[in-house]
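[INFO] parsing input record for XRE family transcriptional regulator
[DEBUG] input buffer:
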Amino acid sequence: MARKAIYLGPRLKRMRRELGLTQANMAEDLDVSPSYIALMERNQRPVTADLLLKIATTYRIDISDLAAGDSEEVTTRLQAVLRDPIFADIDLPSLDVADIATSYPGFAEALMRLHTAYGEEQLALAARRETERGGGGAAAASVIDPVAEARNFLAARRNCFPTLDDSASLAAQDLPTISSMIARIKEKHRLEVTFAPPEVLRGAMRWYDYHRRRVMFSRQLDHKARRFQLALQLAVLERGEEIEAAIGEGRFESDNGKVLARRALESYWAAALLMPYRPFLDAAKRLRYDMDALTYEFQVSYEQVAHRLTTLQRPGAEGVPFFFIRVDRAGNVSKRLDGAGFPFARHGGACPLWNVHKAFDREGEVLVQRIELPDGERYMSVARTVISGGGSFHAQRITRAVALCCADARKGELVYGDALKEDEVTPIGIACRFCHRPQCIARSAPPMGRELRFDHYRQSGVPFAFADE
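[DEBUG] output buffer:
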């Protein structure tokens, strides 16, 4: 019976290099010619089943490790990149894309990295233009903002890092509980783990005392917070190389930008440990993205669930794309996470008509709102207050509001969409300076580029009336 031929060129070449062999060395080991090795590595000759078995026996490797590969995932990621409008006028048949991913994975990876860098530069350029339009001028635009750098780094990758998800999912199999995480820290890293009163930690939640070989956690942390802080400590102890590799692919002009991005990825891995990608995605779809239900299923906080929902954009296994924002009572934005590419993801949040600000009037209650931007695009916003701190009568607490937004077209996939009526929509703006809605009584500043109009005979009630034309 005829043996099936398999083309494994790039994987065969990678394996040979990892073993430190030349083509001549491998040819001698397998009793074939060096030219045949070269042809197989270029996918111009197949690797027969007999030869595959001989490779596995000679180099003591698992056949499945060589034959399985990751070409399907590379294909899916490459197809996602090539859907960018910049490639819209180029005919790119799916079979050709699959051939590139399979036969030239290095080229595919190079193209994907280049596209990511392009996305980061687009975000940075948009930020500079907004700064200049806001009156800061070129001098203000040239000032490096480390927070913006970190946000650009995350946004350019849609806040999704499959490599970190994979390692966290693998680790989660051995670390399902607080006790197992404590045991891991003690046994693998030879560190003492204690829960100490706040005065010992000087107000910190977690203290890695490197010189005394111990990690202390605050006794004021509740069960969910303890799990997350333990997972975060494991990220610091065990995933430094993976995180540094991801940071190395970014473009940073400041060390502080790198520090903030590193902290974000450590938290990303910790969240992925508590909410492994595939189980969490499956549960989110089954529960129709009910965040309260997800907090019970995974024993995490509401805000942690909201964070994690923004990361479910792995090509081929995507969830609903979300944008996340967190604000305080004064309207200050302390966190943005964009897994959706929404137009107001970078600068929006100041409009008082958005329910993220109204959530403070109804603490702990989930508010659902359909919002419409000036360009006519509609989104669904789910907002609720969350509390940080606490744990004792004297401990500081802060109440913030978080909002999770998705495109209005996806509302049917969420349980919250059931609360909306088709005729209910709230017009909002990105910010008053960029909003040109003429009849907004909530306006706090006139829009840029519009001439103010004062009518001595009629009072409209609008704080800053301006010409419609």
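[INFO] The chain has a mean pLDDT of 83.
[INFO] shutting down worker
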